Amino acid sequence: MADVNLLREKLKSTETKIKHLKVNDKLLRRYMVAHKDVNVAYEKIKATDVWRDEIGVAKITNETPGVKRAMATRIAKLLEGRDKLNRPIIYVAVRNHSFRNRDIDDMTQFIVYMLESACSKCLDDELDNLCILYDMGDFSLQCMDYPLVRVLFDILQAHYPERMGVCIILNAPYIFSACWAIIKPWLDENSAGKIIFVKGDDHLSTYVDPTIIPEDL
């Protein structure tokens, strides 16, 4: 808590004004947990504030053309239910994605929209992080989009620190093990430790009620 107080005072004492982030104790705590050092956390907060302004986070809605185009692919949705720790769940139907047919700018906007929507559902008196569930059923290499995965994890780690509470990889086929070997080095140790590989409903039920998984995606 002392470091959080120091970070708050540093933000107050500088001429740089944070205009595009809601600065509260939870945000400051997330940045300190992720970055450990007050000066590093301070610079990261400033960088995120600039990033949010540059890409227009506040203006990205479900009516944004890029978001609407990405939604039409039925790749992901924010579920009504929550995981066993009461976290919002972003469900990703990987089989509905094709790296050949996507626009990276549209998908980047969609990622931000989904993260902002999920974060808005975090409860003040509960864990303020998310569950991201990748359903790997019917996965093929056509679905494997390395540049987009890199964008997702870069955004999460740089601008939504400690927002990913758990990332569940459900029913990944053997072929995905080669893909994972490429992806894992992109993650910092903390993020990599939150990735859980799950097989079947019995295993999934430890984290998420299987009955809330959508059948229409």
UniProtKB/TrEMBL annotation:
CRAL-TRIO domain residues: 67-217
Pfam family, one: CRAL_TRIO
InterPro entries in alphabetical order: CRAL-TRIO_dom (IPR001251), CRAL-TRIO_dom_sf (IPR036865), PITP/CRAL-TRIO (IPR052432)
SMART domains linked to this entry: SEC14 (SM00516)
Coiled-coil spans in chain: none
Protein name: CRAL-TRIO domain-containing protein
